[in-house]
Amino acid sequence: MDEVSAEVVSRRMDGTAAILTISNPPVNALSHAVRDGLMIELRDLRDDTSVDAVILTCAGRTFCAGADISEFDKPTRQPDLSTLIAELASFAKPTLAALHGTTLGGGLELALACRFRVAHRTTRLGFPEVKLGLIPGAGGTVRLPRLIDPGAALEMITTGRLINADEAEFMGLVDAVTDDGVVSAAIEFTHEALAEGKRSKSTRDSGRFQEAGIDWDWLEQEKISVQQKARGLLAPVKAAETLIAGLHLPFEEALANERSTFELLKEGEQSRAQRYLFFAEKEAAKVSTLPASTLPRSIETVGVIGAGTMGRGIAMALANGGISVLLHDADRDALERGLAGIRDVYASSVKRGSLNEDVAKQRVALITSSPNVEGLAQCDLLIEAAFEDKAVKRQIFETLNAVAKSGAIFATNTSYLDPSELGLLSGRPADMIGLHFFSPAHVMKLLEVVRTPSTAPDVVATALSLARTIGKIPVVVGICHGFVGNRMLAARTAELEQLLLEGATPQGVDRAFTEFGWPMGPFQMADLAGLDISWRNRRSLGKKADIADTLCERGQFGQKAGMGYYDYRAGPREPQPNAELVELTARLASEKGVDRRRIETQEICERTLFPMVNEGLRILDEGIVARESDIDVVWANGYGFPRGKGGPMFWARTLGYKKVAEALQEWHSRTGREVFRPSSALSALK
Ligand code: CAA
């Protein structure tokens, strides 16, 4: 063993094979130091006649997770990744990448530049650049479709989907998969290759691209489909265009085209916003007020109380993370319906091909049920997901206090009630926390972790650790009505009725939202969620909303009732204007003396989104969240705020808080409505 360097890149020999190991924790990102270290080693090895082959490997939990994203806002330092990869790809002696962990982005590009790839069976590979508003920038769109089926390459690169090692082997992306040590397997593979004189072609001139021909029509169809699904995001569209253009172009020109598109996207607002969110999501999980020594409690079985929509979703979210769930509902029929609903969701995922049948079976098996509370005694965490009614929740927590074991954590999925009050009612305030999931809970990434003044630090630490286990993005929030998300949603919603009265239509408002990049507009969303939920909430607060209340009084609760802001009688996918609503808004406007006019998109956005930003700053000012970016994480992951705009606060900063404040001031002077009054926090930022 010949140790040349103890730096981020080290070299050792195994016979005539040189093994280069990258060590740049935590994810071996390809920082300048790594690129520089690799370049020095490769230049040294190129002409070293005592070396027959080069094996590239990484220390720690993963092969390279890609370029170092934190360097993207700084000038590029040489050697850049493309230069490094060109050096590696031009090696005449066999080169091999030994992959483990997550081999992503630039890391996969490095591997593609090698002649061979050997992967541990647990490896996951992919190009997640589109999630950062980017495309691969160092040959990914050029080499991958020359190595594997171009259609499969297009799908991987435009969606950012990760594949596992078996799938990669099947596609021809890796040459061998091992269950043992990947470096030993790579060494063995290399020595065999050398003995047999095996010289795989480089991806530049490889196989299927040359042999099978390309179904250009199909690729063009796929490009159109990517465009239709992109919702204003540039990166997936550019990824498809660049990949297809790259197949038409000579290799070097294709690389240059990819590079310039990557650079353009990197400088653009969308990628800046998406990179900001990447780091904001990591930050949100860090709670500076938790003592570093805080250890989470052990969670093996979770009891979920309530088998309605939220309870089922939470049960599935937990089972998807490998956690055993005991679903409880005192109403046996509701419990049966809940379990059947869960089985249906998994069965339709299997049918759609998005879930393997065995995995679905394992997840279903993790969810058991009990109509008796006594069954909950063994649970380490109890999540109440019952009807949003204080008396109902009070009774549940009193019962849980009587049956739950000591040290069990009590959580409420309440959207509006104060978890500290529920904590007192439970008799175990230190064990109480809010875990606010978002519907559908097995899909939506956000978890608002509501910390009460009494919540014990290890309960908060457990919530954060659980969120990680089940793939949720946690944001720790303090107590206020609606917490972060729903409180800001109320500010967004405040002007909707008034807009309808003044002449806007649900279709017009929803279109303004989808053009902005939201997956759906507020009226579509209200119809989907059901108008009765906010009706009940309004009544409990003694509030009124003339239009929505009238719809509810008529039983027009949204999609589930066939009528709401839209008419769904022709089917849920074919919403038509609700003629009764047209008549209702016109009548109410005339009764109230409201002049009706055409309302432009910009006005719709200002009157709905600026109040939301204003409320966000109040929330920050009150210390409900630790940082401004936490608010963006809530909105991007729980409410579909377009990721390409970074979240409401990032978007407002980009526009300029001054502009937001001036517009709100103008609306406030014109209407006198409180929702427009600039908060002191916003005024201070001007
Ligand atoms: N660059 C810089 N930092 C990175 C990074 C990257 N590519 N990937 C992860 N990190 C950092 C995280 O910010 C985090 O830092 P803190 O501990 O300071 O918060 C740390 O590494 C650990 O990350 P996670 O908490 O996310 O760890 P995990 O084990 O849950 O997940 C991962 C690991 C799957 C690699 C995940 O971090 C991830 O998906 N990273 C992004 C990968 C990516 O997008 N790669 C493409 C980069 S762009 C590119 O490569 C373009 C090109 O073609 C040149």
Automatic annotation (TrEMBL):
Pfam families attached here?
A: 3HCDH, 3HCDH_N, ECH_1
Superkingdom, taxonomy of origin: Bacteria
Q: What's the catalysed reaction?
A: a (3S)-3-hydroxyacyl-CoA + NAD(+) = a 3-oxoacyl-CoA + NADH + H(+)
**Which keywords accompany this UniProt record?**
Fatty acid metabolism, Isomerase, Lipid degradation, Lipid metabolism, Lyase, Multifunctional enzyme, NAD, Oxidoreductase, Peroxisome
| Record SUPFAM superfamilies | 6-phosphogluconate dehydrogenase C-terminal domain-like, ClpP/crotonase, NAD(P)-binding Rossmann-fold domains
Domain 3-hydroxyacyl-CoA dehydrogenase NAD binding as annotated: residue spans: 301-478
Q: Which residues does the UniProt record annotate as the domain 3-hydroxyacyl-CoA dehydrogenase C-terminal?
A: 482-568, 605-683
Quick one: which pathway?
Lipid metabolism; fatty acid beta-oxidation
* The protein's name: 3-hydroxyacyl-CoA dehydrogenase NAD-binding domain-containing protein
Q: Please name the taxonomic classification of the source.
A: Bacteria, Pseudomonadati, Pseudomonadota, Alphaproteobacteria, Hyphomicrobiales
